[in-house]
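Suppose a classmate hands you a notebook page containing two proteins, each written out with its sequence and a corresponding row of structure tokens. How would you begin to make sense of it? This section walks through that situation. The first entry is reproduced here exactly as it would appear on such a page.
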Amino acid sequence: MKRCPYCHKHLTQNNHCSNCCLQVHYSVDPSHKRMSSQKNTDLQDETSAASMNVLKKWVPVIIVSFIIVLLLILFLLLRNFNSPEAQAKIFVNAVQNDDASKVATLISTKQNKVGRKDAERYIQFIKNEMGFKVLKKEVYTHVEKLNEDSPVAYEIKTADNQTILRISKNGRRYFIFDNLGFQAPTKNAVLKLDTDATYEFSSDGNKKKIVGSKGEMMTLGQFIPGDYTIDATKTTSRGTYEGQLKFNTGSTEHDSVKVTEAFKEARVKVDLKNSSQLSQDSVKVIINGEKFDVADSKIYGPFPLNKDLTISAEGTLQGKTFQAEEKKISQSDVTETNEVTVSFNQQAIEKYQEEQKQNLTKKISEFVKKYTSALNEAYQSHNMSAIESYLLKDTEFYKTMITDVKKQEATQYQTSQVTNVDRTNDFYSVLVQTETEDGQTIQAHYLLQGDEAAKNLKIVNYQSY
């Protein structure tokens, strides 16, 4: 029976295949050729079927092998980016290449987000304090220890025992690799205020405003290792200053680091003239309405550079306040160092001093005259009550007068005239000329205690010449 040359199915008809529906044309072949062709066709069918069976057996093996290869490639890729060694290499390369953004991402935590600028300082601090090569060696050594040992964290320190990096195990990655955490330790930056002030500054793009009182320890926040110079403004009752807040975390082993101020400030050296006759404790230098005790250095401040400076002074003499002339330095002329001279009115001080001297002399003369009259009365009555209000009790002079008053005879004084008065602190030195009833003139010195206005006078001592 004939076969279709295309699908090899037996033909039911001579010129048409019922299986593939194709027209079939055959030439008349010898019978032995037809038999040979039939055998070849059958052999080809058997070989094809055997090949298909073998291929079917290898397909699962090939698929499984392909999957294994893919998994191996995936593992190698994951290992290159996620193994502890790979994580360490990423950190080390970021430091080496000054990749602040990458370092900031690696060392940030939920509690402490690190910005790019702080990361830049951190990288530079590492390179300055311990050097990149040392850091690289330390990081790889400690990561290897984490793989081998049970501890979950190691700290890397500088030669000065400053902790600069903490490497820890923080769970797993893809259930295969240890996940490493790189943490930069923080220190509290503190500033002791010398006056009530408000500080405003930006820390890694975040604006901060801190208000503190004089003598208070004010904290700026937590900072990772670095050498910081932060632009800031400082506002006090005197005005606003511009400058920086500076600190280096490597300057101390403690958890807190001291902040120093570097603001643009003006200071004024003030020379006072004609103030020697005033009460020195009362003399004050006045700058922009603020009063200062007289300083030995004659330098006052600080003051803002962006404001006018008005300088004057005041002082008192025997109850009266004298104002010195006023000097002004305009804002455009204010520098970090300024010097002015302010003077008191010498003539006005001397005039008032003379008036006060005459007034004091008059008051003391009246006191001495009243005392002289009372003394005569005490001698006549031999009673201390007449003069007790004039004497300072519990002095040697007071005891002497008790004895003198008791005498039966005593000199009677007619007139007393004050010839000179000098004051030192709370005491008056008074020279008095007294005439007795027999016309004899006696020169005497009184030491009186009393206030600046010659009130509440008491005799401390008496001596005649």
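The notebook's second entry, a different protein, reads as follows.
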Amino acid sequence: MLQRKTYNLTTAPLPLPRLFRCAGALPSALPTDSSEPAVKLQPDRIDSANVIGAHGPEGVTINGQLHTRSILVPHTGGIEDWPCSDPLQLTAEHFEQVARLQPEVVLFGSGPRLRFPRPEALRPLVERGIGMETMDTAAACRTYNVLISEGRSVVAALLLAAPA
């Protein structure tokens, strides 16, 4: 015999991800017409933030614009070119450019697979107490969007292969 777990939404609401909000009334006031959905999920709007809409081998789409070269994506403001495509070629000057944006955390997207920059290149971030997480570029894009939805001061430093 199957057991069914039910929830009384008037006293114990189901937790919804932060990116979605319920755009409906309480269950007792929901329409009985089965053609209309009971709960609508809608994405939150993140005004004045740089939002990553897509990522893939062809590049990264930010606010509807495709970028095919390595870039710095601050939570607000202009997107900057980041002239490098290999983590081992990164220098302190590259991370000085990141540190000037004054984020609380940097998400370093190292390309299609996880690769780390040389420790000495990270000195500008360490000296300013800026945290950094290294992940592949796809994971950095997803994590970036979650952090900006929480209102965090974050920069995505994304390495993208230069077009051939």
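A careful reader of the second entry would note: The radius of gyration is 21 Å.
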